[in-house]
Design goal:
Blueprint (H helix, E strand, L loop, with lengths): L13 E2 L8 E2 L3 H5 L53 E9 L4 H18 L34 E6 L1 H4 L37 E7 L2 H15 L3 E12 L28 H7 L16 E10 L1 H4 L4 H8 L36 H5 L10 E2 L2 E7 L5 E11 L2 H4 L1 H10 L6 E11 L11 H4 L2
Antiparallel strand pairs: 1-2, 3-5, 3-6, 4-5, 6-9, 7-10, 7-11, 8-10, 9-10
Helix pairs in contact: 2-4
Bound molecules: ligand L6N33NVT and fe (ii) ion (FE2).
């Protein structure tokens, strides 16, 4: 089943109103952009132009390429090593249909829409203002006139898609990777079920929040009858760099975040720590993919803001000004955990965040962090509902995430200022080839 409209001879970019109204010229994103928007500044390496014609039957001339879009197709899904954009709309969905064919058709339809939207085109072939006059448009319209804005859409499959309450819902149980299990309860977790888990996840990142929201909204619209939105999270101000070309941003504690992150320019490390190495028959389909961990972490910023600078730096283990380790050097210097200072105390405290999470203290494991700040209003007691929506991509959550999180939960000085309120783990299938669909390897072979 496909919910994408099939274009008929009576429709096109200029459609007579069914009520006898005069012909209505359709407007598409690429039609509005074209040469006038050709000067839009690209947001990083790998950007492409490449606007295409609208839906079948379109008589619109090919506009000039518009910069600002990342390729949708490739060996890996975009949105992992892509230079982290400024904005996030993350969404988790649950299947409402129990039919395997509905799951496959949903992934096919999502793939088609994502391939279009990431290139700055409308979600469907007719667009927001064209197509049959008596049918809902196949794009919602709020991105009309906006460039791709570096939009990437990354899809993931949760443990519940494979097995829920012991039930093999879609005939996929034999293909559930051993690493894809619900994350364990960590000490101090205060998780909200309405902000956790989900059969499917969508990470939409862009440099314009309207473009990211438009993407998720249209994917939710397309899913209707097959999957429904379980929860979603907006984010701003990326809290990581995923390319050496990017400056290190700051989180809501005011500290540089992302200094020691894995970067796109380190393919060997990405192979070691981010891309899945299949172990057997169950996870062969995940070769070239990854695992996405998401944690909604509330930060009690009002309490933090009352701490002396000395205490703030002690908790993180780095200086607030430059991000250099407290053991000395500059931002990108490796911390020396053996150096001692006044009172024979280690310069980087034993419960400092950067000591606990450093690869040297964790059997060498690293992760690719891709989180965002969030502020979801205030709680009526004068405190902001603010924090960090932590996202990490790892090769295997059992080795690369769970032990590190357990250590933070048990002994990180920063935990005093944090509360984990949402959580999820998804397997992120490999990239899509032209003509294929996201997650295809799970259903074939
Ligand atoms: C389980 C993994 C991690 C969680 C959860 C986490 C939360 C978290 N982190 C900060 C602030 C900073 N983290 C920094 C470094 C850093 N953090 C993790 C992992 C988790 N953080 C890792 C693996 C690293 C890199 C360690 C290394 O390789 O040296 C830093 C320092 C700058 C940097 O390297 O990025 C800061 C600052 C907050 C505020 C937070 C939860 C709200
Ligand atoms: Fe951290």
């Amino acid at each position: 089943m496909s919910t994408q409209p099939v274009p008929g001879p009576e429709v096109g970019p200029s459609v007579p109103g069914g009520d006898g109204a005069p012909a209505r010229p359709g407007v598409s994103r690429r039609g509005l952009l074209g040469a006038g928007a050709a000067g839009v500044v690209g947001v990083g390496a790998g950007l492409v132009g490449g606007r295409q014609l609208g839906g079948p039957g379109s008589a619109v001339a090919e506009p000039a390429p518009v910069a600002g879009g990342y390729p949708f197709h490739g060996a890996h899904q975009a949105g992992i090593v892509t230079p982290a954009q400024d904005r996030l709309h993350f969404a988790a969905f649950d299947m409402v249909s129990a039919e395997r064919e509905d799951l496959v058709s949903l992934l096919q339809d999502w793939t088609a829409a994502a391939a279009r939207m990431t290139q700055g085109r409308d979600a469907g072939p007719f667009g927001a203002t064209s197509g049959p006059y008596d049918a809902p448009p196949d794009d919602t319209g709020e991105a009309l006139g906006l460039p791709p804005s570096g939009l990437t859409i990354t899809f993931g499959f949760g443990p519940s898609l494979f097995r829920l309450a012991g039930k093999d819902r879609f005939g996929l149980a034999a293909r559930q990777p051993a690493g894809l299990r619900r994350l364990p309860h960590f000490p101090g977790d205060n998780l909200d079920a309405e902000r956790s888990d989900g059969d499917l996840c969508v990470q939409a990142c862009a440099d314009d929040p309207q473009v990211a929201v438009h993407a998720v909204r249209n994917l939710a619209r397309i899913a209707m009858g097959r999957a429904s939105l379980r929860w979603s999270q907006l984010g701003f101000g990326r809290t990581s760099s995923t390319s050496t070309a990017q400056a290190t941003p700051r989180n809501l504690f005011g500290f540089k975040d992302g200094t020691m992150n894995l970067k796109a320019e380190e393919p060997g490390l990405l192979d070691d720590h981010v891309w899945v190495r299949p172990e057997g028959a169950a996870d062969q389909w995940l070769a070239g993919g990854s695992y996405l961990v998401a944690r909604r972490i509330n930060m009690t910023i009002e309490t933090w803001d009352r701490q002396p600078l000395r205490e703030q730096e002690r908790v993180i283990g780095r200086t607030k000004a430059t991000g250099a380790p407290l053991s000395g050097g500059e931002e990108f210097s490796q911390p020396d955990f053996t150096l001692k200072g006044r009172g024979d105390e280690p310069l980087v405290a034993t419960d400092a965040h950067v000591r606990l999470v450093h690869p040297d203290q964790n059997r060498g494991v690293q992760m690719l962090r891709r989180g965002y700040n969030f502020v979801d209003g205030s709680n009526g007691l004068g405190r902001m509902d603010a924090g960090l929506f932590f996202i990490a991509y790892v090769r295997d959550p059992r080795t690369h995430y769970i032990p590190v999180q357990m250590k933070i939960a048990r002994g990180d000085g920063m935990s005093e200022y944090l509360q984990h309120t949402g959580s999820g783990l998804w397997a992120v299938p490999p990239g899509v080839q032209p003509g294929g669909y996201v997650g295809q390897s799970l259903f074939t072979g």
